[in-house]
Amino acid sequence: MNTFWEKIFLGNSIIDWAIAISIIIGSIILLRLIKTILFSQFKKWSKKTNTTIDDFLLLVTERSILPFFYLLAVYSGLSYLSLGEKTQNILRIALLVAGTFFGIRLITSLIRYAVENFTRSQHDIELKKKQARGIIIIINILVWIMGIVFVIDNLGYDITTLVAGLGIGGIAIALAAQAVLGDLFSYFVIFFDKPFEIGDFIIVGDKMGTVEYVGIKTTRIRALSGEQLIMANTDLTNSRVQNYKRMEKRRVVFSIGVLYETPVEKIKMVPGIVKKIIEDQSELQFDRVHFFAFGNFSLNFEIVYYVSSADYNLYMDKQQTINLAIFEEFKKEHIEFAYPTQRIYLDNGDNVTGRTMGETAYSESN
Predict the structure, then answer these.
(1) Fewest CB atoms less than 10 Å from the CB: which of 41, 57, 140, 337?
(2) pLDDT by residue (tens digit) across 29-58?
(3) pLDDT at residue 219 above 80?
(4) Same domain assignment for residues 283 and 169
(5) Which residues contact 4 (CB under 8 A, 6 or more apart)?
(6) Residue 259: CATH number of its domain
(7) 110 with 7, same domain?
(8) What is the pTM of this model?
(9) Coil, helix or strand for 228?
(10) Residue 241 to residue 218: CA distance in whole angstroms
(11) Beta carbons within 10 angstroms of residue 34's beta carbon
(12) In this structure, what is the dihedral angle of CA atoms 106, 111, 116, 117, given to the nearest 10 degrees?
């Protein structure tokens, strides 16, 4: 019987082959038991939770971690045998390539989950997912390039020249496509930092409109006059952007002027009249009204109030209502609005003296 186990087959005894196969089969059985018992329990528990992290961990374990451990079990069993240096090198290279492949797949899965989890917390989820695909593709390409360089380095090849070539090539590409790469990184800034989103009304310099699309290189804005503005992402991230959609309430400042001839009693009534008009309006918060300046041809009042909405049409409707109400109340109280005037004084002789206060003229005779 001993002679059977000591027989040589492909450079190894039968007992060595039996041990190697036992290692492989035993490891696979153990992994299957772990998957069957522990994973089934973990799946039942994950269904009761509201988070997605546990489902994600189950998925990446089944797709990347367990397959690698199966390969590791086979490699461990075969490593017990004396298969020659060439065969051992082939097994080592196969394990290295497989380990790198599953490692890259694990890393890319983690990145995809992080980006998609980030998009789920945003508005317009479907649109954000479409934008995120471009970022995921770029990151995956970079991860795969690093993985290939890692494999080449571990195979014993000198990658100094390759890295130097990639570095020089990268510099050349960066110089040639500086504007494109700048817009690409600006796209990352817009995606993660979110200075504005699709549907926001923004002002950039002397341009204004509603954001319609955010791309890898450009952002498209629909102007108030109807045309589409296409702006480079770099221009947007390098500019001061006013985002009116995120304005919680609008501060409104305006002024009115009354004639100098208005009696003091009427002037004292103006703040009360304006305050009551604003306070009677819904969605408005009165702040102040003051007689603040002696103008060239009028006594000027400054009024400040807040609109509890960013809606521009609502603001204009309220301002129109206030203006009409002020006009009506001033007419009732015989308070006249000021306008540019020129008054000329004539004496009994032919001499004329005057004081210019505007463009419209009228005269009084003594």
Answers:
(1) 41
(2) 888 887 777 777 777 776 666 667 767 777
(3) yes
(4) no
(5) 14
(6) 3.30.70.100
(7) yes
(8) 0.49
(9) strand
(10) 15
(11) 12
(12) 90
